[in-house]
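My main concern about presentation is that the manuscript never shows what a single data entry looks like. An entry of this sort, consisting of the sequence and the corresponding backbone structure tokens, reads as follows:
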Amino acid sequence: MFDVKDLSLADKGKQRIEWASQSMPVLGLIREEFSKTKPFTGITIGACLHVTTETANLMITLKEGGANVVLCASNPLSTQDDVAASLVTHYNIPTFAIKGEDNNTYYKHISAVLDCKPNITMDDGADLVSSIHSKRKDLAQNILGSTEETTTGVIRLKSMEREGVLLFPVVAVNDADTKHLFDNRYGTGQSTIDGIIRATNRMIAGNVFVVAGYGWCGKGLALRARGMGASVIVCEVDPIKALEAVMDGYRVMPMSEAAKIGDFFCTVTGDINVIRLEHFEVMKEGAIVANSGHFDVEIDVKSLEEMAIQKRNIRDYVCEYTLKNTKVYVLAQGRLVNLSAAEGHPSAVMDMSFANQALSAKFIVDNKGILNKKVYKIPADIDNRIAALKLKAMGVTYDSLTQEQIKYLKSWSFGT
């Protein structure tokens, strides 16, 4: 039971999975623990995640814990076909993912995962959860809970909670400090620059790089772009984040102004139509536009195509749009450029993110029947454990409080 591009790619995929595992020591320790305790015996876990080497190591960890694991892709362009083949061939994990799959195939693969009647779902963008709520509500009664990997998905799920329609508990993996402070900032920063450079082979240094959104992903991207020698502009709608960007040394201005002077543009907002028709119309000749937010809605590609006089694919993942007075280039169809044109986040940072996924799934099982139908933040003890394990793996030691200090911090009577 699978649908992958080519099983002959499996051996290459296995080697790459093993290479990634060398930079994922925290998940490795959890795998050792799970292989002994088997917390997921009798549990089916359905996952809709980017099918990468790092995700493969998470799936293997869950299976070691006794789970029946089924996987599909959370983005049509993010699948690594050799990894998908290896998961099927070497690890006997049903996988439904083909790089470049069309929209119908994408949702057919989601349906294939749901047909396995999962007890726990793992999402990166909430597509499994939204499909259950819109089309497969009959499955909800057997679901203990779900985990969500990304900001965009958490936003969708919290909206469902507010409206009272959420049918089971969800753990917001993205909200863990050991996820968003590191994965979103350092992972997105590095992998997005990597994707843009691989797609274009253009120089970052000496150019104007426009970052739309100054959340943790935007902070990481701005930091890395500046480190590559770019002059960075930040576009924001939140006055606090805009002020923070100014204090961090970036220029801040509306997109309507940035569009006139930017050489590179990248959206990381989680919102729709951040770069629109009126922005394309004033862009410089040769402007390069990319997205590193989860869904392909941040760049208004539809309006661009309607406006374009001519369109052609000039390089892999680079589409040239000829407009009346200029040419602009959109990378990876406006989808996640770091996973479409590159390999996504480095394994070392995904080690923490997927450790959170694994331990969150165990948290759901351990609290069966106790959790309410709401979005939960990961418990602090899980977050702290992952941070401590990561530091240990890195060979870093840190201080601990003395008993005197603990007493002082708990007391109100010491004064000054």
The chain has a mean pLDDT of 96.
